[in-house]
Amino acid sequence: MNQRQSAKGRPLGSEKLIALTFLVLILVGAALLTLPAASRSGRSCGFLSALFTSASASCVTGLSLFDTYTQWSPFGQIVLLCLIQIGGLGFMSFASVFFFMLNGRFGMRDSMVLSQTLGEEDMSRIRHLAGWMLRYCILTELFGALLLTARFFPVYGFHKALRLGVFHSVSAFCNAGFDLFGFLTPGGSLTPFHSDPAVLLILSFLIVTGGVGFLVWEEVFRVRRLRKMSVYTRLTLIATACLLLGGTLLFAVLEWNNPETLGPLPFFEKLLAAFFQSVTLRTAGFSGVNQAGLTEAGKSLSLFFMLVGGSSGSTAGGLKTVTLVVLLLFLYSKMRGKSTVVVFKRTIPMAQVTNALSIFGIMIALVFSGTVVLNATSPVTVTEALFESVSAIATVGLSLNATARLSPLSQVVIILFMYFGRVGVLTLSLGFLKEKTEPRYRYADTTLLIG
To answer: Most buried among 125, 201, 229, 347, using CB within 10 Å?
Structure first.
């Protein structure tokens, strides 16, 4: 029997195969982190805590019940690094290609899955793109690791600098947000480097390159002229640039005089911190400033940027940049009384608009439900519960210092949110590819009052 068939002989859908394999990765990671050898104290942290950490690393989120450096031994840190690398690269953009290469063949349904996941209609290019993504990932992470190692070497020596460089290069490129700077400020993330342009800019480069998407960069390097690139690539680059610039300006304005964040910093350090905040909110999860010290307006803006996230086919999560663009173009068309959505002299099919609305609606409903559950079962405020829910489902990893106060039930909810944010959005998108069947009969239309 084909290994991709269920016990009843019916094919296991590609989206289900991805989700189940990802679940296995989380469980294996939890089992390893439960071992006493994974904890620096030599005592097991317990299965639920290990499961929470494994899910956060595999889903490249960054939410954590503990400080990574003080809790996990070198063995535990290696486990986390492997989970981050596999979760960031393997099970989103590369998952379908992995299963294709494993089986050596694919049918029409698999072709559609690969086309949707990789954004490539020419199936003859899949092997080329798979190899290109792997080389791109290795070279970018190696480049980042070398730069970070060079920066840390004068302070920490070669061996520690190399360990910090490799770990944070992978964590940043995969938009994971885990850090090993707890030996400076436990739980402080990158706050000790808020005035270090080298560290923040190197990490920003890695975060953005990982969050834009592998195939976007492949087309950029291959075509090189913006006007000749595909509509998707142009929208991705423009949306990313607008979000980064707009986020920097808005955070600078909102937090400029806040004594808890940008207030005490000199002029250029304020701009640097505002830029890094705009970058890290795009599902990276590193804290350059104290998130709990943000103004209420700053927290609200953070929720929006976290929910948007990065781009499709990347290491980032969230609603995705082009999905947001499609929704905005749809609203703009409706306000103008247009029945079609047009961009760059191309019409966006209404089926894709409907898919974008569906994903947005599901994410908002889950965020609202999670906020209620967390607020009801844990000693956290509504704002903290909302922040945790958005951070989890968008796989961001930023927190208002509320993660450690979550009850066991709330931790399970966050685990499910992280899993859905990393796997559910993809499998939901793949589900849209299923062949649509027309109903055998249709009821008469009715008119409702809307708005």
So the answer is: 229
